[in-house]
């Protein structure tokens, strides 16, 4: 819930609207779009949209610390790069609330402890299922792993298509955006950066 708290001054966190209020907001938007929310095909749409939003933005209900909390130390001396690539995700642009669709590549250099591989994909989901900018999401994934695991370095690349560019505005379908964040040895050692980039492009 940290991203929600940061949107408001301390002590002024807003209460979550009720289900009824959320549904009424959807009815208002349907009317604003030019349709009739009382017609048969739209009668249950407000309820469905509210339920979909709860699922699509479920990342606000989770914290990376909960997901990354359990680590493993029995690694038989392994201390080389751990890379999970091509992690698919769906997010939503915080400016227009339309989808961002992409893949994340996440690597770290262990320092005595490793994560369960599924935990890395789950952290991508936690931040993906929030209103986002791609730049912020890339940094958030990186710093969450760095702070919890304390590895020798973390590298994250996100490659995504933004529907706010494809469906509206400039309408350039198929264009993607690449963002990267590096910490530790990935940040300070050009050879490690190059190895990460080579491995994800194989």
TrEMBL record:
Chain sites annotated for binding Zn(2+): 93, 96, 164
Listed PROSITE patterns: GTP_CYCLOHYDROL_1_1
Top-level taxon of origin: Bacteria
Molecular-function GO term, any one: GTP cyclohydrolase I activity
Single GO cellular component term: cytoplasm
Gene3D superfamilies, per database record: 1.10.286.10, 3.30.1130.10
SUPFAM superfamilies in UniProt: Tetrahydrobiopterin biosynthesis enzymes-like (SSF55620)
Pfam families, per database record: GTP_cyclohydroI (PF01227)
This protein's UniProt keywords: GTP-binding, Hydrolase, Metal-binding, Nucleotide-binding, One-carbon metabolism, Zinc
InterPro entries, A to Z: GTP-CH-I_C/QueF, GTP-CH-I_N, GTP_CycHdrlase_I, GTP_CycHdrlase_I_CS, GTP_CycHdrlase_I_dom
Reactions this protein catalyses: GTP + H2O = 7,8-dihydroneopterin 3'-triphosphate + formate + H(+)
Pathway terms, separated by semicolons: Cofactor biosynthesis; 7,8-dihydroneopterin triphosphate biosynthesis; 7,8-dihydroneopterin triphosphate from GTP: step 1/1
Residue ranges constituting the GTP cyclohydrolase I domain according to the UniProt record: 23-201
Biological processes, Gene Ontology terms: one-carbon metabolic process; tetrahydrobiopterin biosynthetic process; tetrahydrofolate biosynthetic process
Family: Belongs to the GTP cyclohydrolase I family.
Subunit and partners: Homopolymer.
Protein name: GTP cyclohydrolase 1
Record organism: Rhizobium straminoryzae
């Amino acid at each position: 819930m940290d991203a929600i708290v940061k949107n408001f001054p301390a002590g002024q966190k807003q209460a979550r609207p009720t289900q009824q209020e959320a549904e009424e907001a959807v009815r208002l938007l349907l009317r604003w779009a030019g349709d009739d929310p009382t017609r048969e095909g739209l009668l249950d749409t407000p309820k469905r949209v509210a339920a979909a939003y709860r699922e699509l933005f479920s990342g606000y209900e989770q914290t990376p610390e909960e997901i990354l909390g359990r680590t493993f130390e029995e690694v038989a001396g392994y201390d080389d790069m751990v890379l999970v690539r091509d992690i698919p995700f769906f997010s939503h642009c915080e400016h227009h609330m339309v989808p961002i669709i992409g893949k994340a590549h996440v690597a770290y250099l262990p320092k005595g402890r490793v994560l369960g591989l599924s935990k890395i994909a789950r952290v991508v989901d936690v931040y993906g299922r929030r209103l986002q900018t791609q730049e912020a999401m890339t940094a958030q994934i990186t710093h969450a792993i760095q702070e919890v695991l304390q590895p020798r370095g973390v590298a994250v690349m996100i490659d995504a298509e933004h529907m706010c560019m494809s469906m509206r505005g400039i309408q350039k379908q198929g264009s993607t955006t690449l963002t990267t964040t590096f910490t530790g040895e990935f940040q300070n050692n050009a050879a490690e950066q190059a190895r990460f980039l080579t491995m994800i492009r194989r």
